[in-house]
Design brief:
About 40% of the residues lie in helices and about 15% in strands. It is an alpha/beta fold. The strands form five sheets. A seven-stranded mixed beta sheet has the order 4-10-9-8-7-5-6, with helices on both faces. The protein binds pyridoxal-5'-phosphate.
Length: about 425
């Protein structure tokens, strides 16, 4: 089969030199966090060795260099998601912090008693719990769009659950369990018709496909650097500038102020109004390098590669009658996170047997307990793919699952 990405990309990732239990590493957990290319690791070292200084403060060469690189990283992130201007990108710790920023700064300011927040039943806890907290503080309530047997959102229900009381629609672009790619552009149009803002959880979409916030039309988009070849501890919130301007700050402290009096303060313009204290300078800069790397490989090529891998995995897993795969079968409408169960073997046992073969998958509820409750299972196993994965990795996975089958069919039940 033709692969859109050369196998040589693996050579950029030092971790693939590692062996686990004497076996070559087969990393199938990129939905949790991706591996990092050498270029990103070197960018971190370069910052600390050559121009480590705080940003926006120093009047000396090192500080000016650090500030320039930090703001350059912001421009790279903005260009990557097609924001209208770099000032629409706020650096955060992660997707989780980005969603909390909107929920607290926008939600506490604008939500009123009786307002409704519309979520979906497939949300990651990061796009659920912050809204539960803010809704209870403001007397607002949560409503949910469900998904069908195949793992698609039931859009016909929008008619019923989206009303003039809806003030926020918060939806994941791509499910981290079912893999479903949700029709965010359509949801945005319907939400805007009733005057609601739309917050998109892009944790699983931004790393894996071209994302254009102007085309999506969303008001906010949250995503994490560590899932897209960047370091941990850095993420971003994109927000439409007019909304950011009209929002109060999230955190107070140094760097986000204009004038501080004993009783009151005035704040900087966005995005700096939302970046209190010393930011994560090194990781922001290295994330910019990760974005350069992804752009060089090409986001279209990454999406094509993953579609081919998922199709291959779906075909191979179909050969095993005892493997139940969750989520859509149509690779045009799904990403590369693939949840499954092997008969009644606990996913933790599956993951442990695979680990002995050097294969890393995730097992558990993947921070989506309500989704799993809807599926009627406590946990699933999940394999997820990225640009460095190959068909051989999937062959290894299938061989490992055959081993699981052998081991557990011997256990009397
Ligand atoms: C869909 C989705 N949303 C949010 C998150 C949270 O991301 P982070 O832990 O980087 O904040 C994840 C992480 O797995 C995710 O898959």
């Amino acid at each position: 089969m033709r692969m859109a990405i050369p196998r040589t990309v693996r050579e950029d990732f030092p971790i693939f030199r590692r062996r686990v239990h004497g076996k070559p590493l087969v990393y199938l957990d990129s939905a949790a966090t991706s591996q990092k290319p050498r270029q990103v690791i070197e960018a971190l070292v370069r910052y600390y060795e050559e121009y480590n200084a705080n940003v926006h403060r120093g009047i000396y060469t090192l500080a000016e260099e650090a500030t320039a690189k930090y703001e350059e990283a912001r421009r790279k992130v903005a260009t990557f998601i097609h924001a209208r201007r770099p000032e629409e990108v706020i650096f955060t710790r992660s997707t989780t912090e980005a969603i909390n920023l909107v929920a607290y700064a926008w939600g506490l300011h604008y939500l009123r008693e009786g307002d409704e927040i519309l979520l979906t039943e497939m949300e990651h806890h990061s796009n659920l719990v912050p809204w539960q907290i803010v809704a209870s503080l403001k007397g607002a309530s949560l409503r949910f769009l469900s998904f069908d047997e195949e793992g698609y959102l039931v859009l016909d229900d929008l008619e019923r659950v989206l009303t003039e009381r809806t003030k926020v629609v918060a939806v994941s672009h791509q499910s981290n369990v079912l893999g479903t790619i949700n029709p965010v552009d359509e949801i945005v149009k319907r939400a805007h018709d009733v005057g609601a803002i739309v917050v998109v959880d892009g944790a699983q979409s931004v790393p894996h496909m071209p994302v254009d916030v102007q085309k999506l039309g969303c008001d906010f988009l949250a995503f994490s650097g560590h899932k897209m070849c960047g370091p941990t501890g850095i993420g971003a919130l994109y927000g439409r500038y007019e909304l950011l301007e009209a929002m109060p700050p999230f955190h107070g402290g140094g760097e986000m102020i204009q004038l501080v009096q004993l009783h009151t303060s005035t704040y900087k313009d966005p995005p700096w109004k939302f970046e209190a204290g010393t930011p994560n300078i090194a990781d922001a800069i290295a994330w910019g390098v990760a974005i350069d790397y992804l752009c060089e490989v090409g986001m279209e090529a990454i999406r094509t590669h993953e579609k081919e891998l998922v199709q291959y995995a779906l075909n191979r897993l179909q050969e095993m009658a005892e493997v139940k795969v969750y989520g859509p079968r149509d690779v045009e409408r799904r990403g590369s996170a693939l949840a499954f169960n092997v008969a009644d073997v606990h996913p933790h046992d599956v993951a442990q047997v695979l680990d002995q073969e050097g294969i890393c998958i995730r097992a558990g509820h993947h921070c989506t307990q309500p989704l799993h409750r809807r599926l009627g299972v406590a946990a699933t196993a999940r394999a997820s793919f990225y640009l460095y994965n190959t068909e051989e990795d999937i062959d290894q996975l299938v061989a490992g699952l055959q081993r699981v089958r052998e081991l557990f069919s011997r256990v009397p039940r």
